[in-house]
Amino acid sequence: xxxxxxxxxxxxxxxxxxxxxxxxxxxxxxxxxxxxxxxxxxxxxxxxxxxxxxxxxxxxxxxxxxxxxxxxxxxxxxxxxxxxxxxxxxxxxxxxxxxxxxxxxxxxxxx
Length: 111
Prior knowledge:
By secondary structure, the protein is mainly α. It is built from 4 helices and 3 strands. The chain is elongated and about 55 Å long.
């Protein structure tokens, strides 16, 4: 089995499964059940799901999903850049949250 792709969420996994099933490609999802728990950060070999395909079907599966992979990588690049309005909004939220948080500790450690 060869690693093909690590889906970002359950919806993406369901989409890729349907595409692979429609073409009768044999695959396995590593960490399928345990990876759904989403405990903490995504750590490879611990809770990240990975779609694996058979060695002889890897080229076919990769070619079949190539358009999807190109589209998702192009979308991810565009979403990683924050506009100025997003940055200003984030700064305002941080400043406001600092004022609304109740029950600050005494700096000397005395209650």
